[in-house]
Amino acid sequence: MVERLRPLCSPALAKTLDMRTLQDLSRATLIHSANALTWVEYLRRVEVKELRPKNELWLDRSIMAIEAAVDGLGVVLESEILADEELRDGRLVAPFGSPDLQVETTTYFLVKSTGFRSGSRIAAFEKWLQAAIAAAQGAQSRL
Questions:
Q1: Span 70-117, pLDDT tens digits
Q2: Long-range contacts for 133-142 (Cβ within 8 Å, ≥24 apart)?
Q3: Contact 83, 4 (CB under 8 A)
Q4: Does residue 95 contact residue 9 with C-beta atoms inside 8 Å?
Q5: Radius of gyration of the chain (CA)
Q6: What is the phi/psi pair of residue 56, to 5°?
Q7: What's the pLDDT tens digit per position in 35-71?
Q8: Where do the domains of the chain lie, and which CATH numbers do they carry?
Q9: pTM, full prediction
């Protein structure tokens, strides 16, 4: 499973700031959280040379940063996996729809030892995990 990060904000903020390109982030408050990618690194990867935001807000938890974005406090750089529910129900949007502006940060693997005895609980967990991943990937493909 691949985790992708991209800018997310409330629909109202996207409309108010008329965000069409990444340079429009200079009119926004950038919300920072402790995740796999900083705004500076993200902007470097998508080849934005210099951007000075209007304000910055620093939070230490992704869930707090996502809620701040839902409340219209700014634009968060966050995981589509963690913000899946907010994206599905329309509380958050990706103001820049281009897939080129998504950055892959982490890939997750399910690993089990070949020597480990399989049981029904392990098989049930693996089945549940695969179904959850498939659902998350399906939701991401609809964004």
A1: 999 999 999 888 898 999 999 999 999 788 888 887 766 777 777 666
A2: 133/1, 136/1, 136/81, 136/84, 137/1, 139/84, 139/87, 139/88, 140/4, 140/80, 140/81, 140/84
A3: no
A4: yes
A5: 17
A6: -135, 145
A7: 878 999 999 999 888 889 999 999 989 999 999 999 9
A8: 2-109 (3.40.190.10)
A9: 0.79
